[in-house]
Fold these 3 entries.
Entry 1:
Amino acid sequence: RQRQIVATVKAAGHIANTEVQELAGVSKRTAHRELSDLVQKGLLTQVGTTGKGTFYALRKGATKGPKGARARSAAKQDTAPAS
């Protein structure tokens, strides 16, 4: 479901909870959990606090996702031998 959500955000620019409900066929609470998880992972950012106007957009620099180029380079630095 999360891949589906991210793909939709990449195509449309943003997504709302109701759109996730329709897209994935899930309840309001499940849609919220999925969106919150993507925000927690750093892929999406929430625009607005609560209510009808709230939507989620791709976070700047997050196009590669949690396992993208930035994560790989950070992992390389962590495993590099100390001088």
Note: The beta strands are 14-15, 44-47, 55-58.
Entry 2:
Amino acid sequence: MSTSAVASACVVLVGVSWNLASAGAVADVLSREYGVALATIGLLTTVLFGIQVIGTVPAGRLIDRFGPRPLAAAALTTAALGNGLLLLAPVIE
């Protein structure tokens, strides 16, 4: 496997999974701002990782069928659109 392929895979991994990994770093802030217990933030983070685990096998099959580039592009596009929608969401106060 070439160096550029590994670097591309790392960029896609970070780009798509950033939202999952960043919840723990701001758990105290989320807990305080939304008025929920840290255990609730932990449970929601666990659910996110569970969904990611469940989606791994179908994603692998899609990669086998269509190739990694189209799936990586689709994953990054979906993540960008989802983050864009979150930016447009109203502030909860």
Note: The mean pLDDT is 83.
Entry 3:
Amino acid sequence: MVVNEHTIVLGRLGPKELASAPDSIVEAVMRPGPATVRADEPLDELLDRMAKHRIKAMIVTTPEGRLLGVIRRQEEGSNRSAASQSDGGR
């Protein structure tokens, strides 16, 4: 995840981007404007949508784009379980 000094989400870095150009600056290789959801979205609906589109993780932000955490869908046969990671209380 790429955030600015105000924890506003700017982009995403995955293994492909990190391996593609190790000497590049982050801005040059990140995927800008990642999809996000709001914290008040119903969890069941979000997990169903993530399973339908085979999305493993979704970024949770405020309406202003400030990072709150990440929801990860567990793939052990159930799309009803999820684990969240916070951003450390920022």
Note: The longest strand covers residues 67-73.
